[in-house]
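Researcher: Going back to the complex we discussed earlier. I've cleaned up the inputs and rechecked each line, so this should be the final set. Can you rerun the prediction on the complete assembly and write out the structure?
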Amino acid sequence: MIILGIETSCDETAASIIKGEENKIEVLSNIISSQIDIHRQYGGVVPEVAAREHVLNIMPVIDEALKIANLKHGAIDAIAVTVGPGLVTSLQTGVETAKVLSYAWNIPVIGINHIEGHIAANFIGEFSVLNFEFPMIVLTVSGGHTMLILSKQLGQFETVGETVDDAAGEAFDKAAKLMDIGYPGGPIISTEADKFNEINNTQPAIKLPRPMLTSKNFNFSFSGLKTALRYALEKDSTWQNRISEYCFHFQQAIIDVLIHKTIKAAEKYNAKTVMLAGGVSANKELRLQLETAVKERLIGTKFNLPDLKYTTDNAAMIAAAGYFKAQQQEFTKWSDLKVDSNLEL
Ligand code: KG4
Ligand code: ZN
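Model: Rerun complete. Updated structure for the full complex:
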């Protein structure tokens, strides 16, 4: 089955073509037109600007996806498109384009939840049912979401914990803004943190809180951590010379809470598999430390990570989610397809 995926929920205009065959999802093309350079000057995504860029980029990106896959549109069996959650004016471009193409090409369309897409990124490539045993706990961390998701069967999700304020990616972005080191903050903080050598450090240690670490539920809170960082910077006249050290400790504070709660949730729900998803799953330390924690503390539990190139927003993950829905014949009539910017999982 050949599926065209379309993703425009935030600031990336993306199209991808995948080929799904039983337990294999092969990516034939994965085109992403990023608006990061445009939004960087504002320190964040400006919805109105993002919407106009999507309109300009969507057809060239789809064209390119077909070209790279070396396919004509007649080869496409179905279109999978993100319908939410996300910025309403951004989502609209992807959804309206998918509707028009579905009608014009006379092929079915499938509405995809963006979060489900991030989770599906774990299945790109060859996957064996043996590696994905249910129940699963999925830590989903992006710029807009921080959730612990329990999945007892394919396509079924229950949110067992989420952030009560900022998302993990948002915390990275806001911390980077406080230190004025660029946008988006996650990859910059991660690179800076790598430069810090904790062992050879002679400066007094920077102490940041681990919000809600011991709370009885699986919820998160990152807004206080950002405020704690702001106070620490204000008190330290030398902070500009200690950027990598601040990044190291800020990143570790987030990782500690994420890992602690993921392990607790996996224990409570007897998870047979733990997975990571979302833009923050590109974080090298989070990937390494979560894998180690699962190995050491959840003996026998399987662990999966999405390939780095499918961690931040892309359309291959949307097409992959579409492949699973197409197998279940979960198609939508083009005229019924609707944007839902607050779509729940
Ligand atoms: O999934 P995504 O591309 O978009 C949303 O759905 O929100 O996630 C973007 C978020 C941004 O907040 C960005 O700072 C964060 O993912 N991010 C990272 C890394 N790469 C991207 N956070 C930490 N470490 C990274 N390496
Ligand atoms: Zn995303």
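Model: Worth noting: The domain at 130-305 is CATH 3.30.420.40 (Nucleotidyltransferase; domain 5).
Researcher: Good, that matches what I expected from the previous run.
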